[in-house]
């Protein structure tokens, strides 16, 4: 039921990321779906619009009518992912009254394995998550980040973190670092998944689920405060 509902939702992505809305045409949709596949296979450095054009049997110039460059395309795909995750989180936690259970559920969703995120049927969800895990830091670790942030390119990502911040405050309104904790969970989950794939001896994700680790981390932080031992 949840997946059916989310498949009908349009994610409102910042218009500054594209020249023409890719959802407005079959070609635009092909650019999105196939760029996800190709980026997952090749990685950001080896990915080019020329290779994408060959894959969708079109031309580079046609892709440039939708996206100024591959950096903007990467930001678009990351925004798509964060938007889908946000909708999933809102729907899944909306009816939960207990603040602690709501926070637990949110942590489960934002730290879950790629195959557990299944919303838009026309995009390879596992591949999209792989891209975010491997490439998202490249989207904002650059000299343009401040200008892009002012333009609202990270609005959905930031909004998702602030939803977690609000949940943390509802569990413990006296906790001093809710923003740092929320952003650590969201970005830390991506890092743990990356370590699991490439540096297995640096993470316990193979033995203990990432969700369990971050639940333990968050609740110990909040309980430490309530126990007066900070």
Structure overview:
- With 230 residues, the chain is mainly α.
- It has a single domain (2-226), classed as Tetracycline Repressor, domain 2 (Orthogonal Bundle).
- The chain is built from 11 helices and no strands.
- It has helices at residues 2-6, 26-42, 49-55, 60-64, 70-93, 99-111, 125-140, 145-150, 155-171, 178-198, 210-226.
- The termini are far apart.
Distance between the amino and carboxyl termini: 43 Å
What top-tier CATH class fits best?
Mainly Alpha
Q: Could you give a short account of the major beta sheet?
A: none
CATH topology assignment: Tetracycline Repressor, domain 2
Indicate the proportion of strand residues. Answer: under 5%
Judged by helices, strands and strand pairing, the structural class is mainly alpha
Summarize model confidence as the mean pLDDT. Answer: 89
Shape: globular
Helix content: 55-70%
CATH architecture: Orthogonal Bundle
Which runs of at least 5 residues are low in confidence (pLDDT < 50)? 224-230
* CATH superfamily membership: Tetracycline Repressor, domain 2
């Amino acid at each position: 039921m949840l997946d059916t509902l989310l498949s009908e939702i349009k994610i409102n992505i910042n218009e500054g990321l594209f020249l023409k809305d890719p959802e407005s045409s079959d070609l635009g949709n092909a650019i999105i779906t196939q760029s996800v596949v190709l980026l997952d296979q090749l990685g950001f450095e080896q990915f080019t619009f020329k290779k994408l054009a060959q894959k969708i049997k079109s031309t580079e110039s046609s892709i440039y009518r939708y996206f100024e460059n591959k950096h903007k395309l990467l930001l678009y795909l990351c925004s798509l992912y964060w938007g889908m995750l946000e909708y999933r989180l809102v729907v899944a936690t909306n009816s939960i009254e207990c603040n602690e259970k709501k926070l637990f559920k949110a942590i489960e969703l934002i730290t879950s394995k790629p195959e557990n995120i299944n919303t838009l049927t026309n995009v390879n969800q596992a591949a999209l998550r792989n891209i975010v895990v491997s490439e998202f830091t490249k989207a904002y670790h650059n000299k343009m980040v401040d200008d892009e942030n002012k333009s609202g390119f990270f609005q959905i990502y930031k909004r998702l973190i602030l939803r977690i911040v609000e949940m943390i405050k509802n569990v413990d309104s006296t906790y001093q670092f809710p923003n740092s904790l929320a952003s650590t969970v969201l970005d830390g989950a991506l890092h743990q998944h990356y370590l699991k794939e490439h540096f297995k001896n640096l993470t316990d994700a193979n033995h203990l689920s990432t969700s369990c680790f971050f639940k333990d981390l968050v609740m110990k932080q909040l309980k430490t405060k309530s126990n007066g031992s900070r």
